Model the fold of this input.
Amino acid sequence: MTRRQHFISILILGILSTISPFSIDMYLPGFPAIAKDLHTPISQVQLSLTAYLVGISVGQLLYGPLLDRFGRKLPLYAGLLVYIAASVGCALSTSIDMLILMRLLQALGGCVGLVAAQALVRDLFPVNQIAQVFSLLTLVIAVSPMIAPTVGGYATIAFGWHSIFIILAVVAALMLVGVFFFLPDGKQPDPALSLRPKAVMGSFFTVLKQPQFLTYSLVGGIATAAPFAYLAGSSDVFMTIYHVSEQQYGWIFAFLAIAMIGPTQLNRFLLKRFSNEQIIFTTLIYQSIVGLLLVIGTWAGWYGLFGLIGMLFLFLGGQGMTNPNASALSLAPFSRHAGSAAALMGSFRMGFGSIISAAVSVLHNNTAIPMVGVMTVCVILGLVILLIGERVIRYQPKPGDLDEPMTEVML
Done:
């Protein structure tokens, strides 16, 4: 692969990975307008976010076997077309129930971008480059929250919240064109892989019985679910409690997105001196300490608007370290079943994310405590699972994928 092809491939894979961040972040400034227009409380609008996360969690499990069986591109085309149609349906929604349903369908289509992008990273790049590539993808993903809420805020003011979903449909159509003309095919179709339920479950079991995958996918899923608490609660906290406007919220969101960009790229340099495992452990310790200070300070009333923004900035900086390293360690043992492994890993993350966002909605009490409390619980629980899982990995045999031996991974 030439340097130009390398750059274009990473750019397209990064853009594919932004489908869900854009779908989530872009409509957050429109929550109050949606609630008012559809005559429903904002807690019901938050459930449309939960529905999207549930759809991603379930949909990734469906796409994993399809990507392994039919290759990467055909399922990718189908999913993007479903996403485009559902986005138009969201724009035409006249009730909160219809919006929730359309968001579920939108997620079922759009989640193919997440699974396919991660599987293609495993297809197109050597194992010892996976963490670095994921760091670059995370950079592209991290830029989207700087753009999406700001665009969403201005679009809501200028054209109404419906326009947000029309924009998403147009962006997905452009992605479809880019994938068709510029993205390499990756792994070819494998007719030997059956799509019968028993065979599919067997592929998933093969992945799940790998201790390294199970440990780091759970750690990554739970620890990186913390931002979903922020996503679910931030619009209410900033716009209702602190009375910022849609545009101001978009700029706050963009500023906090910067917290993930620097650490993501710092991770590439740290990998030259430290292992993935060391970086994840240190990051979770750091986030646990910051999270506890965030909860205590919020409860005690130490932070005003700018103090809360500053503490959230410090906390979210850890996400740029945990996510790429956990992804690399989860997928490293697999080649033949990379699609199924990516699907399970993504399903764990979005499944935990849907639970976390629902928890913030249920615990809603007109304060910031539910948001910051749930964020902190996520990273502490991730740290506990990491400590337990690494002991299992260290003292148990490491069975590999069906078609390759397992090797020790130190990226």
